[in-house]
């Protein structure tokens, strides 16, 4: 059983929801990424999604695009992201880390070399936005063989065939994109999410995390009532943008603790 799978199993045994925050490696500065990852854990993160900056992040809204631009300007590369996780692991061997990004940097490095390096860096999962499940079975197999969970996106427009494809090649959890749009959008259709999540969970047989559009404790709580995990990215990046460097970690911890408290107040046991 992978570290991600055991994390969900442990949380589900007590009826708790996973909190999965996202930050971009190298934003606002490479030397601050590990302290920020530690701040996410202190704030209540169960799993960390670490963004690999890319020049054309097509699924991301303006906030995360800016984070990628800053990180790239700071010289952040895929290799440096891997080095960052290695550094994080010197102080934290337990919290699962998922790399989230795009295919181009991986293709440039070479899939086999990337998978080997990710395993050596003790990365637990990979979510490559533009690797659709039906076109990357060899990558998913290589990831699983290396002990990495290949994680895939599903959306309101996903077909039954896409559900089957993800169930066949994915593992760890499903990232359900709650909106027809990019990250950071502001309007969530809670009824649509509530209707969709049980269908996905039943068909793919994995925990379902919901992201895109979750911005505060109330929206996190409402999503947590039906999902196995809540994913928050753009709102954390905004906190990073507006915080002075000497308050950066403290502000991120304070924001995330509000979300953690809201999720822990959800009534009801394991679904």
TrEMBL record:
Belongs to the TrpA family. The keyword Lyase applies. InterPro entries: Aldolase_TIM, RibuloseP-bd_barrel, Trp_synthase_alpha_AS, Trp_synthase_suA. The alpha subunit is responsible for the aldol cleavage of indoleglycerol phosphate to indole and glyceraldehyde 3-phosphate. Keywords: Amino-acid biosynthesis, Aromatic amino acid biosynthesis, Lyase, Tryptophan biosynthesis. It is an enzyme of class 4 (lyase). The active site is at residues 49, 60. Tetramer of two alpha and two beta chains. It catalyses: (1S,2R)-1-C-(indol-3-yl)glycerol 3-phosphate + L-serine = D-glyceraldehyde 3-phosphate + L-tryptophan + H2O. The keyword Amino-acid biosynthesis applies. It comes from the Bacteria. The lineage of its organism: Bacteria, Pseudomonadati, Pseudomonadota, Betaproteobacteria, Rhodocyclales. SUPFAM superfamilies: Ribulose-phoshate binding barrel. GO terms for molecular function: tryptophan synthase activity. Transmembrane segments: none annotated. This is Tryptophan synthase alpha chain. Pathway: Amino-acid biosynthesis; L-tryptophan biosynthesis; L-tryptophan from chorismate: step 5/5. Its EC number is 4.2.1.20. It comes from Aromatoleum buckelii.
């Amino acid at each position: 059983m992978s570290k991600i799978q055991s994390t969900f199993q442990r949380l589900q045994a007590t009826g708790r929801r996973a909190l999965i925050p996202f930050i971009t490696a190298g934003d606002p500065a490479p030397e601050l990424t590990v302290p920020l990852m530690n701040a996410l854990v202190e704030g209540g993160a169960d799993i960390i999604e670490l963004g690999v900056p890319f020049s054309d992040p097509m699924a991301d809204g303006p906030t995360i695009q800016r984070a990628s631009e800053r990180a790239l300007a700071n010289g952040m590369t895929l290799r440096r992201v891997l080095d960052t996780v290695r550094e994080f692991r010197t102080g934290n061997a337990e919290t699962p880390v998922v790399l989230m990004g795009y295919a181009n940097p991986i293709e440039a490095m070479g899939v086999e070399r990337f998978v080997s390096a990710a395993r050596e860096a003790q990365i637990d999962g990979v979510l490559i936005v533009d690797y659709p499940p039906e076109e990357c079975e060899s990558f998913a197999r290589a990831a699983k063989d290396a002990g990495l969970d290949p994680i895939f996106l599903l959306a309101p427009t996903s077909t039954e065939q896409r559900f089957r494809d993800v169930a066949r090649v994915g593992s760890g959890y499903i990232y359900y994109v709650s909106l027809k749009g990019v990250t950071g959008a502001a309007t969530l259709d809670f009824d649509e999410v509530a209707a969709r999540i049980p269908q996905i969970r039943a068909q793919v047989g994995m925990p379902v995390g919901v992201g895109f559009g979750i911005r505060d404790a109330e929206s996190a709580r409402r999503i947590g009532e039906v999902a196995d995990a809540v994913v928050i990215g753009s709102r954390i990046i905004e906190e990073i943008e507006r915080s002075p460097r000497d308050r950066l970690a403290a502000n991120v911890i304070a924001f995330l603790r509000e979300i953690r408290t809201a999720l822990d107040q959800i009534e009801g046991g394991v679904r």
